[in-house]
């Protein structure tokens, strides 16, 4: 099942949003293997710049795997293999001359389970800067503050920057992880179910934050929560059994999907 | 509902007694072990008490039991331990880091090779220590011509404890969750930066513990050192890496095998010196571990 980018753009031709005029990431015929097991097949998708793209689908459908392909996070899992292309601003990220470290600076990531380092709040945010060669203390300080403000957590932590990040609540830890990712000024932010372990209030804060962030970043978010996908994303891709079944503007996916399986999933008939 | 509440007290009672019985058995076993240890220690201290004293600690071996001391053996033990730690710690930690962080995760495409190393290290940990002595004799004493020296002894013991240290360090590295590694990589850190700034600090307490455990094994070894020719009558404190040496276990072994009762008392006293050294080392390990645990894993 293929739904190449041009179909979507034709379909959306008369809409005000022109999603594919400004593509940030393009995946082309992407296959992915864990040893022998094929986890993604023939994934082709164009992710627009400065928009939120949601990836939905039942567990094990490959949406997280796809997300982790976008910053080559799967590289560190032994025995994985990729076929096909992923272009970031037209540049193949799986090309042999691609610098993975630099790629990950451009494509940041927030994980499902908040994973702050067992260090101070300040050091958590400063770490990404330091490993990327920032030396000047005042510059680092300024950037840390800016990132924490950007992630809407500055007011809560400004008086205890030196205390351990592990003392924060779950929602605060996740916003700290977002701040940490923002500090190195990525162009794309990948979020793997960033709110799945949080209570509704913390979830709402993260969702508000995502709306704020899309002004400056291209965001790709995996979510299990259909309402969340409907609330936060501009475009939604439905994954099933390692394939993209349908990719379109979010309101089309949720109100008028063209595939029966998409409709069954978003209306809760399976999954 | 009623049948449940009727059944509850009976089964809870039976479980309560089983629980209590199990606790009593566990405590009895522990008490038995501690009692035997206490008996051994008392008997050693009682036997050696007449000899324990400043003169014993600062004296040199002698033909006359009442004049003999353990200074060369104590100093030899300290030197051998320091040198063994110096050789085995960096190599052990380095090997563990390679096997845990690089080899498995697609390091240089040498998966089969690292698995081979893996199996060998596990086997080496179980090889009798006298075999290491023979190896040390052939390589360090003869081939490298280090003679029956402090250096040869320390290198031999370093080989002996390396498998223990490597296995312990790998265990410690494995306790660092992958989510931390991923978080670090996602921020554009290289593999080495991730290891240096995140993995090693978190694993440090485990690494130190396994190193000290390995060294505690080395401090009590006699067989490999006798094999490489550590001598038992050393009337001087070793003054260079290549000087002959002795260590406390060898001194004890030597005195125990003498016929005179006076030397037996000396042996007991020497044991009473060795034990506090061992306890001191373990105490340092625990202190270090607690310090790093507090700092890194609240």
Textual characterization of the structure:
- The complex is a heterodimer of chains A (about 270) and B (about 300).
- Chain A is α/β, with parallel strands linked by helices and about 270 residues long.
- Chain A has helices at about 5-10, 65-70, 100-105, 120-130, 135-150, 155, 170-185, 200-215, 225-230, 250-255, 260-265, and strands spanning about 25-35, 35-50, 50-55, 80-90, 90, 105-110, 190, 220, 235-240, 245-250.
- Chain A has a 6-stranded mixed β-sheet with strand order 6-7-8-3-9-10, sandwiched between helices. A 4-stranded antiparallel β-sheet of chain A has the order 2-1-4-5, covered by helices on one side.
- In chain A, strand 9 (about 235-240) and strand 10 form a beta hairpin.
- Chain B is mainly α and about 300 residues long.
- Chain B has a single domain (about 70-295), classed as MetI-like (MetI-like fold, Orthogonal Bundle), CATH 1.10.3720.10.
- In chain B, about 75% of the residues lie in helices and about 0% in strands.
- Chain B contains 11 helices and no strands.
- Chain B has helices at about 1-50, 55-60, 70-105, 110-125, 130-145, 150-175, 180-185, 190-220, 225, 250-255, 260-295.
- Chain B is globular and about 70 Å long.
- Chain B starts with a helix and ends with a helix.
């Amino acid at each position: 099942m293929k739904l190449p980018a041009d179909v979507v753009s034709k379909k959306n031709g008369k809409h005000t949003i022109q999603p594919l005029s400004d593509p940030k990431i393009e995946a082309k015929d992407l296959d992915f293997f864990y040893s022998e097991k094929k986890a993604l097949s023939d994934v082709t998708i164009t992710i627009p710049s400065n928009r939120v793209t949601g990836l939905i689908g039942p567990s094990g459908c490959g949406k997280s795997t796809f997300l982790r392909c976008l910053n080559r996070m799967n590289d560190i899992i032994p025995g994985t293999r990729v076929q096909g292309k992923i272009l970031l601003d037209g540049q193949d990220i799986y090309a042999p001359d691609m610098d993975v470290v630099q790629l990950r600076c451009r494509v940041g990531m927030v994980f499902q389970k908040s994973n702050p380092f067992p260090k101070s709040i300040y050091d958590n945010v400063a770490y990404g800067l330091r490993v990327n060669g920032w030396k000047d203390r005042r510059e680092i300080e300024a950037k840390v503050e800016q990132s924490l403000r950007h992630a809407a957590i500055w007011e809560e932590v400004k008086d205890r920057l030196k205390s351990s990040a592990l003392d924060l609540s779950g929602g605060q830890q996740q916003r700290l992880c977002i701040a940490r990712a923002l500090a190195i000024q990525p162009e794309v932010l990948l979020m793997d179910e960033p709110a799945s372990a949080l209570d509704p209030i913390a979830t709402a804060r993260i969702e508000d934050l995502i709306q704020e962030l899309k002004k400056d970043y291209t965001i790709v978010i995996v979510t299990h929560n259909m309402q969340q996908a409907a609330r936060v994303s501009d475009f939604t891709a439905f994954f099933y059994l390692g394939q993209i079944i349908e990719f379109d503007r979010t309101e089309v996916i949720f109100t008028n999907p063209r595939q029966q399986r998409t409709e069954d999933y978003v209306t809760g008939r399976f999954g | 509902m009623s049948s449940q509440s009727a059944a509850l007290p009976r089964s809870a009672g039976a479980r309560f007694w089983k629980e209590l019985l199990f606790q009593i058995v566990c405590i009895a076993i522990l008490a038995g072990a501690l009692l035997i240890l206490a008996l051994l220690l008392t008997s050693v201290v009682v036997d050696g008490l007449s000899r324990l004293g400043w003169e014993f600690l600062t004296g040199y071996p002698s033909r006359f039991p009442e004049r003999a001391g353990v200074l060369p053996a104590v100093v030899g033990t300290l030197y051998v331990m320091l040198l063994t730690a110096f050789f085995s710690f960096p190599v052990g930690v380095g090997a563990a880091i390679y096997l845990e962080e690089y080899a498995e995760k697609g390091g240089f495409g040498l998966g089969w090779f690292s698995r081979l190393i893996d199996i060998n290290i596990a086997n080496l940990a179980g090889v009798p220590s006298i075999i290491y002595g023979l190896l040390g004799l052939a390589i360090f004493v003869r081939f490298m011509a280090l003679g029956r020296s402090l250096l040869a002894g320390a290198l031999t013991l370093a080989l002996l404890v390396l498998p223990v240290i490597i296995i312990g360090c790998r265990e410690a590295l494995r306790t660092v969750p992958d989510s931390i590694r991923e978080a670090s990589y996602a921020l554009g850190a290289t593999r080495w930066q991730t290891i240096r700034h995140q993995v090693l600090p978190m694993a440090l307490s485990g690494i130190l513990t396994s190193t000290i455990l390995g060294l505690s094994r080395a401090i009590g070894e006699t067989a490999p050192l006798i094999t490489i020719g550590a001598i038992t009558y050393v009337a001087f404190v070793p003054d260079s890496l290549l000087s002959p040496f002795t260590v406390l276990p060898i001194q004890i072994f030597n005195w125990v095998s003498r016929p005179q009762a006076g030397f037996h008392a000396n042996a007991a006293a020497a044991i009473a010196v060795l034990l506090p050294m061992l306890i001191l080392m373990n105490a340092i390990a625990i202190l270090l571990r607690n310090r790093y645990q507090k700092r890194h894993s609240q």
